[in-house]
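Issue: ligand-bound run for iron/sulfur cluster - logging full I/O for the record.

Environment: standard queue, default settings, no custom constraints.

Inputs:
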Amino acid sequence: MADRMLQFVRLGQQTPDKRAVPERRQDFDEIYKSFEPPRAAAQASRCSQCGVPFCSIHCPLSNNIPDWLKLTAEGRLQEAYEVSSATNTFPEICGRICPQDRLCEGNCVIERGFESVTIGAVERYITDTAFEMGWITPGRPRKELGQSVGIIGAGPAGLAAADILRRLGYAVHVYDRYDRVGGLMIYGIPNFKLEKEIVLRRWKLMEEAGIVFHLGAEIGPALPLATLRERHASVLIATGVYKARDIGGPGVGLPGIVPALSYLTASNRTGLGDTVESFTDGSLNAAGKNVVVIGGGDTAMDCVRTAVRQGAISVSCLYRRDKANMPGSMREVKNAEEEGVQFIWLSAPEAFLGETGASVTGVRAVRMRLGMADPSGRQSVEPIEGSSFTLPADLVIKALGFEPEDVHAFGDKRLEVSRNGTLKVHHKSFMTSVPGVFAAGDIVRGASLVVWGIRDGRDAAAQMHEFIQSNAATQIAAE
Ligand code: FAD
Ligand code: SF4
Ligand code: SF4
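Outputs:
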């Protein structure tokens, strides 16, 4: 069947169609349509089946991409699903929100000269089809091991670990301070990138597999880590990073200047049917407002595009570097530009304008220029004297990135942290400085990606299994 492959020489790249801009500005539905089966097979057949597949090497999960592309091209979708789900806990989610241009697709060898294989879209298509066909069943174990594990955090890292450990036969208890499962996949990432039904569907499957979720359970003074450690043979910390980086300057405390995650969470909760007072009272709602978002990462892109959909009068994004140096995905910048967002590159806020006690009315910003590169190669930025300008703003959203909260709030001073507050783990075993307590995801890496959370969660789960089983073996030997 090899003749079905290598079609890149005659067939161009076709990504799934996007919904028209006027339509997608009006709602929060995903903007990419699904592949039609013939197009998915044709696009998969563009793969040249490389002996050394750089796509897989640059996928954090080392997905066996050429194999599932070939199976898709041959119409063997159930087998394609088996291969793709063997290395990825949530392929339908990664297919939607991985920054493929920086990972698998950006390293596809046919990218040079021809455009890359549309790997992410095919991965999404395979798993969406598997759900439609009923091929995906709860990951129940063949036999129960009679031991339990505790997982703190129901984001991608915690869930990936929970899935692996449950399949191995552990009683798995996941604790999360939120009232829903998914972490940033449920309350951070907007519906137009990842429809919430997709996350809720996984939650249901995991419950059916026997995973127990303790929601509204915050690990801290009332429920310290030590209590969980006593309850379970091993514990995983996968609590992510939530402390928003802040900004200074005159007027920064004015009402109407809000943190990005509060804004996105209010929007996502409203979309899920919750009544959110800060949304209904207008304080976290962009409708009828001039909105300025500060930052250049994916969070900033999610805020500007949410504001468009909420019916803002104008939406501007201030970023202190240029487009080439922004950390956000280029695909999302393009989507935002199409939807009418104004990007003001090389600009930073100087002051926030408004009467004391009244809401913000504007942002005074200054133009920046790129300076010398630091040892990492990143250029510094410096303000251009006399270049100040003012933007009207009724809502200013701060999207400057996230840092870890203080992990010592979990009540164990033995937990070692790095200089930037992330949890220190042994690089191979994923164990923290507290015996039997492991950690994975953003709380170890710093703000990262869903796909890296999945990878770390899966690896940490394997290490927890080894730890518990070797402890059990030692105990038996001692008896
Ligand atoms: P999280 O997803 O943050 O989950 C941590 C969980 O721990 C949460 O549910 C939290 O409630 C819980 N928790 C925290 N503290 C406690 C406690 N003390 N007790 C109990 N529970 C606790 N990545 C991509 O790959 N693609 C994207 O498009 C993308 N877009 C993003 C957009 C936004 C707005 C943001 C903020 C991030 C985005 N990311 C994206 C990054 C991605 O969401 C994160 O890297 C990923 O979710 C990290 O997974 P995690 O499991 O480590 O943590
Ligand atoms: Fe690409 Fe992400 Fe899928 Fe890996 S998981 S193949 S990086 S889309
Ligand atoms: Fe196929 Fe591109 Fe991967 Fe090569 S690098 S195996 S062409 S997807």
